[in-house]
Amino acid sequence: MSNGRILVTGGSGFIGSRIVLQLLAHGIPVRILTRNPNALTHHHMVEPFHGDLAVPESLEGIEADIAGVIHCAGALGRWGVPASELHAINTAAPLALLERFCEQFRRRNGGRFILVSGGGVSGPLGTMIGDETTPCCPATAYEKTKYQAETALIERAESLSMDVVVVRPTFTYGPDDPHKLPLFKRIRDRRFLFIGDGNALIHPVHVNDAARGILLAREKGRSGEIYIIGGREPVSWLQLTTTLSHALGVPPPRWHIPEGLSRMVAGFLEFTAHRLPLFEPLLTRGRILMVNGGYGYSIDKAINDLKYHPNHTLEDGIVETVASYQRMGWL
How far, in Å, CA of 198 to CA of 188, rounded? Predict the structure, then answer.
């Protein structure tokens, strides 16, 4: 890989911050795109660039002296986020960023653009184990916009003769992650309900493993290729929640709700929420898909091409995550 500063968008976020730390550990200087003026400015090898993907004029000059891009930033598929906003941030913004760096990378005679997507772009797989060749049928607006970004960037990069690699981290968890905290709280408070029989697959990956896999894709990945970065193996929701329960010191969840009934309840709650803007539904069709759709993957391609091997067992990673939540007073 060429030497120089690496731009990490979303560099103050959950996965992005770990990527930054691992780059710094290898002596690689970093520029982070952030809306937080205080993000990581304490490190002499980190140069913050204050800008917003939603405001293209705020990115003027971001490409100067950059040898590569790791694009982690994105809009999450939270309730109430309009599809237009998801498309603007998750699809249009990375494509515009690629175009912005085209001339810079040509002048340098090289430069790799890493797009951090997500395993869920496959859509629900049921009991099947998916891989990079599995046809994608994304089911939610978030998944659709991430998949649209993948296809658009690979196609555009080919026409521009640019070096683009797509990485799909799976269900990422780890210390200090606010996004998985509600799941841990529901387990702790014994309020978790299985949708269906609990045998649907999920593929957890520790955030440090995910970050390392992304950097291996930067170093060893083939241009135009997609790599799934996951934990050692997919597990069922029964296995995941049992592991969480043991780490939290509570009995495993045992209550199940039939999928058909859950869809009726979610439909009613979503209907109500659309008419009462301050009301956020506790159950949505997207959440049903997450826990009952089946999102299990093979990481063989990353193992073979990138020499990627997850370091964390699920048990050790969950214990570490619980300890971090407790240390911060979140649990």
Answer: 18
